[in-house]
Automatic annotation (TrEMBL):
Signal peptide as annotated in the record: 1-26
Pfam families given in the database record: Amidase_2
Keyword hit for Signal: yes
Keywords tagged on the record: Signal
Name used for this protein in its record: N-acetylmuramoyl-L-alanine amidase
Biological processes, Gene Ontology terms: peptidoglycan catabolic process
PANTHER family linked to this entry: PEPTIDOGLYCAN RECOGNITION PROTEIN, PEPTIDOGLYCAN-RECOGNITION PROTEIN LC-RELATED
Lineage: Bacteria, Bacillati, Actinomycetota, Actinomycetes, Propionibacteriales
MF term (GO), any: zinc ion binding
InterPro entries tied to this protein: Amidase/PGRP_sf, Amidase_domain, PGRP, PGRP_domain_met/bac
Family statement: Belongs to the N-acetylmuramoyl-L-alanine amidase 2 family.
Domain of life per record: Bacteria
Family matches, as SMART domains: Ami_2 (SM00644), PGRP (SM00701)
N-acetylmuramoyl-L-alanine amidase domain location: 179-331
Length: 461
């Protein structure tokens, strides 16, 4: 038993990993993942260098206190408490028994040893606890410097901020099948009604070139260690004000995440990378977070100053994780910035939603069109919003018009606005024996007796 282990209070279970000192060039570090049992007496194991550490245990164990210290360059760090967070998932596609509770993962950059403990509130060791060591590796594209998006023109939604795609930050898409084939297919909710702000409870002193690896590490931890389908958040923002696409399925769509427990439906989660319980987020982080929310809210016609009802609970449309349960997330210093964030989003959106598509939806009746599923987005020739019951298209040349029912289905099958028909120039109207809708370069004709829709193009489309 080590000298350190003899000094621990009775009942503390510690795993002590003493690792060989290895010389690596950063580009030569390969990804690796290892889980080690925290059960029983202290053990010593050799393993590869790692950059992220976390602790997990079976679902249902309450009030766990977890901590680690790591060995770097032959020296042991001080003990550091890990943030315990159980209210992100679960994912509905994960088979029963796979999900585990656990801490948030902690970025340690380059460590060659770890000591860890996990205790219940009465000081006893947590059964079947595991310490997770992740080396996300280093990729040539780990530097990401996106240009700032241009301000939106009058009458158009706030623009999508530049962000690192999953491909750019190096997501291994095979990992989404780790917990079953059903996980590989993204799940969608009906619309976007709210944004939940989180922090990752990680450290705040990371470098620009480390962030992509940190996101890869979180991805591996959420899937392999916690038993989720994918990284839990829809978006992540680093301290330099850069955005990273989170959960797979399309940043523009209402992808179901695993970020706020029972409130994941019809919301999205945006996590600021760092720990903001004592330190405050950078202004660059706050500004880019506001821009992401402004883009999503403007596209889905939501007000940053409104209230919504999710899971039977009335909440502000921009809320912190702690608004849904007893948790420190997103940290006291970030939480107190939420009023500023709501005001900033409102300013970026121009104080109201006023696009031609939204005004047309109001004219048709919001109940008739249904909630927006694919929020207002730029198309090849104009703009479009796919609502639950209608798709509305707009261009300066055609004005706003909608497709509905069989006309919508056929138009989509032809490629919608990318088809030879072009954009709709009328609503569906009745004619002898059926109905018709006119497009820039032709018509869709419905024959009532045959119950079929035919396509008619102009002679010179």
């Amino acid at each position: 038993m080590s000298t350190f282990s003899r000094l621990l209070p009775l009942g503390v279970t510690v795993v002590s990993l003493v690792l060989p000192t290895l010389q690596h060039q950063a580009a030569e570090i390969e990804p690796s993942y290892q889980e080690l049992s925290l059960d029983g007496p202290s053990v010593a194991v050799e393993t590869k260098p790692f950059a992220m550490v976390g602790i997990t245990w079976p679902v249902g164990v309450q009030a766990v206190q977890a901590k680690v210290r790591v060995q770097q360059n032959g020296q042991w760090s001080d003990w550091e408490s890990l943030t315990v967070e159980d209210e992100h998932g679960p994912d509905p596609s994960v088979p029963e028994g796979i999900e585990r509770s656990g801490t948030e993962p902690l970025w340690v950059s380059n460590a060659t040893g770890v000591q860890a403990s996990a205790l219940t509130s009465d000081g006893t060791s947590v059964a079947d606890a595991k310490v997770v060591l992740i080396q996300p590796g280093v990729l040539a594209g780990d530097s990401f410097e996106p240009p700032d998006a241009q301000a939106s023109a009058s009458g158009t939604p706030y623009p999508m901020p530049a962000m690192a795609s999953r491909k750019q930050w190096g997501a291994d898409e095979r990992l989404r099948s780790h917990n079953g084939a059903a996980c590989a297919r993204p799940k969608y909710t009906q619309t976007v009604m709210a944004a939940f702000v989180h922090h990752t409870a990680d450290r705040n002193d990371y470098s620009r070139t480390q962030v992509a690896a940190m996101v890869r590490g979180m991805y591996a931890y959420h899937v392999k260690s916690r038993g989720w389908c994918d990284v839990g958040y829809n978006f992540l923002v680093d301290r330099f004000g850069r955005v990273f696409e989170g959960r797979y399925g399309g940043a523009q769509l209402p992808v179901l995440g695993a970020h706020t427990g029972s409130f994941n439906t019809n919301s999205f989660g945006i996590a600021l990378i760092g720990n903001f319980e004592k330190a405050g987020p950078t202004q660059a982080m706050l500004e880019k977070t506001a821009r992401v929310i402004a883009w999503k809210f403007d596209a889905y016609y939501r007000s940053p100053k409104s209230t919504v009802v999710l899971g039977g609970t009335k909440l502000l449309s921009i809320s912190g994780h702690r608004d849904t349960k007893a948790t420190a997330c997103p940290g006291a210093q970030l939480y107190k910035q939420l009023p500023w964030l709501r005001h900033r989003v409102d300013v970026l959106m121009g104080g109201s939603v006023a696009t031609p598509i939204y005004r047309f939806a109001l004219k048709l009746g919001l109940r008739a069109v249904g909630p927006p599923f694919w929020g207002e987005h730029r198309t090849r020739t104009g703009w479009a919003t796919y609502f639950a019951h209608r798709d509305i298209f707009y261009s300066v040349a055609t004005g706003p018009h909608s497709t509905v029912g069989m006309f919508r289905s056929r138009y989509r099958s032809l490629g919608a606005e990318r088809s030879r028909l072009g954009l709709p120039t009328t609503e569906v109207y009745k004619m002898t024996g059926g109905s018709r809708q006119r497009y820039q370069h032709g018509w869709l004709n419905y024959n009532q007796s045959r119950r079929t829709i035919t396509v008619q193009y102009r002679s010179s489309p």
